[in-house]
Amino acid sequence: MYATCVTLKFTRRCGEAARIADRFNRTVRPSPALGGMITNGCMLKSFKVTEEKGNPLPPQREKKPKTSPCVLRCGTAYGNLLAMDDISAEWMTSPVRDCGSDNDVSNDDDDEDDEEEEPIRKRSKWPDLPIPAPWYGETSKETGFHRSSRLCLNQIRECLLEHRWQEAAEYLISYFQTLEEISTPRQLLATEIIFRLGSEILHQHPNSKLEDVNHFFDLMKNTGVRGYLKISLEHSFHLLLTGNFDDAVRQLTTAESWRYGKQSAVQADKMKLIHAYRGFLSYLSWISKKGSSSEDDDGDVSAIQEMHTYFRQACISLQEILKLPGVWDPFVVGYVNMLEFYNDHEGALNVLKEYAYDSRFPPNPNAHVYLYRFLKRQGSTEKKQIRVLKILGALVPSHELMLELFSLLLESGTEQSLKEALDVLFNLLDDCSWKHSVAAWTCFRNMIKLLRRKKLKHLLEEGWETRKDWWPAFHFRTYHARADFQLSRQLLLMKVVVASTLVGNKCMYCRRKNELENEREARRMIKTHKKRKR
Amino acid sequence: MDSKFPDQLFPVFYYTGPPKKKADCPVHAWGLHGHVYGNDSGSAEVADWSFLAQRKVNGPTWAPVESIVAPLLPPKSVNKWSSRHLPSAMDFPKHMQNFYLYKSEDAFSTMNHLLEDHFDFGSGELKECMKKTTVSMKNMERFMSSAKFIKCPLKPFEKRASLYNNLLGDVIHDIPPGLLGELLYEELTLQREEKQFNEVATGGALGFFLISTSNTSQEGCLVYPRKAALNSLNFHKVVVEFQENIPRPKFMNKPINYGVNGTIRQVSVGPMEESVYVGVRTDYNCGVWVATSAQKPQPLDVVNTQERATCLTVSPHMPGELLVASESGVAYLWTVGRSLQKFREEEGNLYFNAKSPWRWCDFSAHPRVMLYADRTGLELSDIRSKETCSHTVFRIGATSGCKSGERVILSRYLCNVNTHHHLVTTQHSAYIMDERFPCLPMIKWDHMMASPPMFAQAVGTASQHQNTVILGSQSSQELTLLQYSGGNAVAAQVLGAPQKLSCPMKSLADLPVQIPHRQKNVQERLTVPAAGIASIYYDKEESLCVLQLSEVGDIFYQTLRPASQDSLQAAHKEMLNEDSVTEQSGSSPQESQESVNNPRTNIVSQSKCKIVSQSDCPPETSDARIHGINEPCVNMILNPLTEQEDVSLSKDIPRPAKVSKATLLKWKSWLNVLRNGQRSTPRYSQLHWTLKTKDHFTFDGKPRDILGKDQITSLRNNMREVMEKKSVLTCGATSLSPPEVLPTPHPVDTQSWGDDLSQRLSVSWEGGWKDWWEEKLGLNREKRIEELRRKRRRLKRTRGPRVALSGSFTTSASYQSDLDGWSSAVSDFGGQDPDLDSSTFSGYLSTQEDSAEPERTGRVLQHEPKGSKLSSEEKSNVTLSRNKAKMPKDPSQEGNPKAPKQLKQDYMSALFSSQEEVVDAGTEGTDFFFPMSLSSQVSSISNSQRKPSLGPFSQSSQSSKQGKKRARMGF
Question: One GO biological process from the UniProt record (chain A) (predicted)?
C-alpha cells in the first residue's frame, strides 16, 4: 500500500486532502461517509480503469540500433532526424526567408554526396508540426500511484468533456490523493489541477452552494502558496458574479496584503491585477456613494468624505495598472469618470492620450473611442475630434464612429475634407458589415447630391477608379436588388441612386430595381382594384 | 449589428515576445472565470450592478438526441483500409527482409542473370572447365534450409556467411542495402507522420449548402467524395425531416457524381445566393463547380498548381472568386474564367522559421483584403496595392498566450457568425480573433482535444446570442463543441465548458455484438481517421446536425438540440422509466454487451456499487440506473429515492443513453452491407487444410426434441423461476409427466442351482472360495470335528450345572486370544443375565435381523442392506479392509497388548493373497451378526479392529470394547 506509506509520512498533506475531499463530499453527495476513506488511501486503488494509450512519440533522437548486417549505413537518416524542429529556433526577430537551408543544418558529416541525395531529401518532409506529447500518456518510470492518478485524471477529463458532473465529482474525490505527491513540481501541478477541476465541478454541479465554493476556495488557497493570489482573484470574481460585492472586496483586500517571500513574474502580475480590481471595486463603491449623496442633495460631510476615500483608493490602484501595457477599458473608463467628476480634465486627457497613443499598448480601438468621446464631452474643437477619429479610421475603417467623422468632415465643407469624407464613406461601404446599412447608403446618396451641386464629381470618379472592378459584383448584382428590396425599400432606393451614378443607369441593379418597382406597382394596382370592386 | 465594436473589453495584460508557457497543465479549459467587468446599469446601488465574466460558466448546452452517431450512407466496400497502427521508423530492417524474401526478383534479378552459369542445378553433365567455377545448388539448398530465416539466419554459418558477404556483399543487391534502408526509414517516418497528422486534409472534404427551408423540413445539398480513393465528387440532395420530433437527414434521389483526377482533399462551399460555388481541391488541381437551386451542378473551371495545393477557399462576398495557396508559398486570387492572380508570396514562414511549407488563405470582412496564414501566424494583406501591405492578425507568441511549440493548424473566416471574426485553431487552443483589434484574441478556449483540430464549423444561431463552433480532429475523430456570445455590442464571452460529441469510434460499444472477427473488422472500419465535417442548422425547430466524413468515405451524423431545462427533465424521467423496465426484465443483452465493450461505464458502475455499499445512506444518482446495475443491493437502495433527487439531477444529465430503434436498424443494415462487401480474402492468409465431414455424418433432418414448443417455453420459465429461488428443478414443478419408475430386478436365488460349479461360483462370489474347496476336499475335516466336539461340549455344559461366566470366557479367550467386541458383549450380556443362554440369544438376534440362517453353502447373495446407513457403513468397511495392508495403523490400537498377535494376523492375510481379504470383507457383514463360526469370528475380529473408527457402527464397537475392559477389570 504505497498510498498508506505516503499517508503516514505526509499526514499534514493528507489532512488537507481529506478536508478538501470532505467539503467536496458534502456538496456532491450529502453523506459524509466517504470522507474518511480518502485518508486511508484506498480510493485510488479501488477503481480500475482501462488504460488509454496515447500515441507513442516518434522515435526522436534515438541512437542507431544494432540491426542486421544488411543495413550498412543510414547515417543521413539519423542526421536528418536530429535536425527536427528545434524549439530554441522558434522565435527569431527577423523572419528567416530561406526555408530550404534549414534541412542542411545538422548534416555536417556527409557532405560528399550532398548533390546526389538532394532528390531524396526533397521527397521526405520532416515533421513541421510538433504534435503535443500526450501528457496523459504512460511514462517509462511510473509508479503505481502515478499511474492510478493519471488514469483517474483521464476519467475526470472524460466526464467533464461529456458534462457528467456528478461522476466527475466522484472521481475527483479519489483524485485528491495526488496532493500527497512527494515531488514539489508534481504537487504544484496537482494543486492546480484540483483547483481547476474542483471549481469547475462546483460551478456546474446542481447541488453546489455558495458556502461550498467559498470553503473550497479557502482550502485551496492554502494548499501550496503559489496559487494563493490566483485563487483569491478567482474567488472574488465568483463572489462578484453571485452578487456578494462586499465579500469580494474583502477577499481582494486580504489578498492585497498577502506577502510571501519572492514572487514569480506571474505572481507579480496577479498582484497588480488584484490591486487594479480592488481599485475598480472602490470606484464602484464611489459611484454608489455618489449616487446616494446626490440624491440627498446636500449630503452630510461624512458621506462625502467616505466617497473621497474611495476615490483616493481607486486612484492609486488604477493609476498603477494603467502604466502597464494591456487592455484596461473598464479601468480607464472608471478612472476618467472620477477625474472628470473632480474636474481634473487635464489629468483625464493625459490618461486617455497615454492609453491611446502609447506604442507599448496594443492597438485598441476603444482607446481612441474614449478619447474622442471625452473630447466631445469637453466640447473641444472639431479639428481635434476629426484628428482622433481619423486615427481611429486608419485602425478600423469600418468603425461606427466613421459616420460621425463623415458628418464632421462634411461640416467643414472644404474640397479636401469633402474628398476625405468620400473616402471615409467608400471605405465604410467596402466593409461587408455595412453592406445593408441604410444610414451609410443614405449618406452616400446625400454625398453624391452634394458633389453634384458643388460640381466635384471628379472626386467621386477618383474613389470609384479603384473599386469599379469589384463593387458591381459586391454591391450591385440582381441578387442584391432582390435581397435589399426584401430588407427595406429605402435601402434599395438609396442604392439605386448610387448605382446609377457610379455604374450607370443600365446596370443590372437598376434594371432589377425597375422590375421590382413595376411588380410592386402592379401588385398595388391589383389591390386597389380589388378594393374598389368591393 | 456586426459593424459595432464592443464598448469595453475585458482587462488583459499585453505581453510581447516568444511564448513562455509550457504545455503542462492539461485542464486549462476549466475552472476560471477569466476576467470580469461591471456593466454600467446606471443604478446607484452596488447590488444592481451586473458583472460580466469572460467565461460564463453556465452556458446554454446542446444535448445529443441519441448517444451514438448514425451512418448516413451504406458503406462502400473498400478492399483495404489502413488500420490505426502507427508504423515505426525503426522497423525498416523488417521491411527490408520482407522485400528480399517476397520480392527477390526485384532485389537480386540482375545478379541472378550474371551468376546463372555458375550454379549447378544437377540438370546435366558439367563440362570439365566449368567445374571449378560452379557451385552445386544442392549445397546451397542445404545451406538455405538450415538457415530457415529465423532471427539471424546466418548464425550457424557465421564465418562462411561473412566470407560470402565480403565476396558478394556489394554486388549482389540490385539496390544497395544502405540506400534501401535509408529510403525505407524515411518512408516509414513519413507514413507515421502522415498517420498522426496529415495536413493535406486541412479544411475537410465535406460541404453542405442550403437550397430551401420550409416549416417542416429543410432541403440542402451535401457535397462529398466517394469511391475507394475518394476521387469521385458527389452532389447529393439531403432533406432534414422531423420524425417524432427528432430531425433526421435523409438522402433524396440519386447523387450526381463527377470523377476527379486525384483524391479530394478539401471541399469549400460559398454562400448560397443566386448560385453557389463549390471549390474542390486535390493535391495538384483545384476545380470549381457552380450549382443553383434549380439546376444541377456544373463544372466551371480547373487550375493546376506546380507545387501541392494546400488551400482553396470560395469567397463569401463575390461570386466566382476563390483563393488558392500552395506549398511554394504563393497565394493566388482565382477568378473563375480568368487566370490566377498572385497576391502574396512568402518563401519562408511569417514570424519565425517553423520549417513548414503549409500555407493557408482566407477572406476577410473587406473583399479586397485577404488573410494569409502559415503555421506561425495570420496576416491580412491588401491585394490592391502592389507592394505587400499587411498587418498581423495573429501570431504565435506571448501576446495571445500561446504555449511553446504551438502552431496554427487551421484558420477560418466566420462570415456567417460575425463579419470580423476569424477562428484560429492550434494543437492546444482555439482563438477567436477580431480583425479590428488584431493580435489579442477576443476569446481563447482550450479545446482539450488529443489530436489537432483540422476541421471547423461555425453556426450562428437564430437568437444571435450564442455562436457555436464545432472543431473536428483527424486521427482521433474527436468532435468538440464550443460556444461563445457577444463580439458586437458587448465583449465576446465564452459560454460553458467544451463539450465532446460522440464519434463513430465510440458508437460501436452501443451496437449489438458481432462475432469477434467481424467486430474487429467493424472496429477497424470505424476507427478510420476523419476527413471532414459539416453541419446543418435548422432554425425553425432549433436543431443542429453534425456530419462527419471518414477517410474511406463513410458519413456519420448526429443530431443535437438545445438542452432546455424542460427537455432535460423529460429526458431524465424517460430514462428512469426505461431503466425500470430494463430492471424488471433483467439485464438485456445490450447492457451486458455494454459492460463488456465499454469498460468505462463498467468501472463507473463498479465504483458506484462500491460507494453504495460502503455508505449507509447513499445519495445514489440515477447514473447507476442508467448503467443498468442489477445487483440487488443497489436496487434496494435506489428504490426509496425521492423526487428531490430527480429534480436536482435533471441538470446533470445532458446525455441520453438511449438509442432509437431507427438508428439501430440503420446500423444493422450498415453492418450487413459492410459484411457482405468483405468477401474477398486477405492476400496473405492461407487457407488451412480442411477435411470434409459432410458425408460422414448423415442427419435425417428429424427433430430430436420430442417436446413441443410450448413445453419448452414453459420449461424455460420454470427453470428461470427455480434459478431465481436458487432451488432445484424437480419433475413435479414442471408440466412434464413423471418419468416411469423401473422396478428393481429380483434378487438372484443361488440355492436353486444345485450343481457344484454354480455353488462354487456363488460362494467364491461371496469370497468363500477357499473354504468351499477345503470343505469339498475335506481338508478341514479335523477342524470340523474339533468344532463339532466343542459344540457338543458347550451343549453339554448348558445342559449340565451352571458354570461361571468367567469360565466360558477364559475358554474362549484361551482359544481365540482376542475377542470380538460383539462376542464379549454377548458374554457380558450373558453375565448380566445368566438366564439367557446363547442359543436363545442367537435366536433373538436372528429374529431381529430377519435374515436367513448363516449357512455357508446356501447363502442368499444379497447386498441389499437392511438399513441404508448400515449398508453404506458396510461398503466403506469393505473398501477400507481391502486396503488394510497399506493402511496406517489406528493409533488407538497402539500400545494394545494384543497388537503383535494382530500383526501376525495381518501378515497372514497378506500372505494369503487377496482371496483372504475378500473373505474378510465378504463375511464381515454377516459374521458380525452371527458370531457362531470361529473362522469367521477371527476375521471379523481382525476387521473390526483394523478399520478406522468411522460412523456410529465403529463407535458402538469401541464402546463395547470399553465395556469389555470394564468387565475384565471387574475380575
Answer: heart contraction
CA-CA distance, B551 to B532, in Å (whole number)? 9
Query: How large is the C-alpha radius of gyration of chain A?
Result: 34
Subunit contact B615:A34, Cβ cutoff 8 A: yes
For B602-618, b/e burial (b = at least 16 CB within 10 A) is: bbbbbbbbebbeebeeb
Is A470 within 8 Å of chain B by CB? yes
**Full DSSP string of B371-408:** EEEETTEEEEEESSSSS--EEEEEESSTTTTPBTT--E
Task: Find, among B730, B692, B690, B734, the residue nearest to B711 by Cα.
Answer: B734
Predicted confidence (pLDDT) per residue in A383-396, tens digit: 999 999 999 999 99
The predicted model scores a pTM of 0.69
CA dist B379 and A33 (Å) reads 58
What are the chain A neighbours of B499 within 8 Å (beta carbons)? 161-163
How far B604 CA lies from chain A's nearest CA (Å)? 8
| Strand B543-550 to B36-39 pairing | unpaired
Helical (H) or strand (E) element with B712: helix B709-725
CA nearest to B370, candidates B397, B352, B388: B388
Contact between A198 and B31 using a beta-carbon 8 Å cutoff: yes
| A200 to B30: CB separation less than 8 angstroms, yes or no | yes
Q: How far apart are CA B857 and CA B834, in angstroms?
A: 33
For B701-713, how does the pLDDT look when each residue is reduced to its tens digit (9 = 90+)?
555 566 777 888 8
Look at chain A and count its residues: 534
Measured distance between the N- and C-terminal CA atoms of chain A, rounded to whole angstroms: 96
- Is A199 near chain B, with CB under 8 Å? yes
Set of cell numbers at residue A97: 526567408
**DSSP character at residue A133:** P
Q: Are B470 and B558 in contact (CB under 8 A)?
A: no
Pick from A66, A482, A176, A186: which is nearest to B151 by CA? Answer: A66
Cell of B214: 420550409
What DSSP state is assigned to residue B740? P
pLDDT band at B233 (very low <50, low <70, confident <90, very high): very high
Nearest alpha-carbon partner for A223 in A27, A8, A13: A13
Say which range, B207-211, B476-480, B890-894, has the weakest mean pLDDT.
B890-894
Query: Residues of A with CB below 8 A from B36's CB?
Result: 237, 240-241, 277
Give the three-state DSSP class for B677.
coil
* Cell numbers given for B543: 436543431
**Chain B, nearest residue to A321 by Cα:** B13
Measured CA angle at A476 (ends A472, A481), to 5 deg: 165
Q: Does A391 touch chain B (CB under 8 A)?
A: no
Chain B: give the shortest CA distance to residue A362, in Å: 7
Which amino acid is residue B887, in one-letter code?
A: M
Q: Are the C-beta atoms of A59 and A21 separated by less than 8 Å?
A: no
Q: What's the average model confidence in pLDDT over B97-123? A: 78
Those residues with Cβ within 8 angstroms of residue A136's Cβ, 6 or more apart along the chain or in another chain: A52, A54, A150, A153, A154, A157, B26
With beta carbons less than 8 A apart as the criterion, state whether A474 and B318 touch: yes
Helix (H) or strand (E) run with residue B728 in it: none
- Rounded CA gap, A24 and A156, in Å? 15
**How many CB atoms lie under 10 A from the CB of residue B518?**
14
Q: How many CB atoms lie within 10 A of CB B848?
A: 9
Give the single-character DSSP code of B437: B
Model pLDDT for residues A92-126, shown as the tens digit of each residue: 333 333 333 333 333 333 333 333 333 333 333 44
Q: Helix, strand, or coil here: B529?
A: coil
Are the Cβ atoms of A132 and B653 closer than 8 angstroms? Answer: no
- Going from the C-alpha of B677 to that of each of A122, A530, B218, B224, B681, the distances in angstroms are 40, 66, 33, 21, 11
- For residue A520, which of A495, A500, A493 has the smallest C-alpha distance? A493
The CA distance from B428 to A132, in Å, is: 8
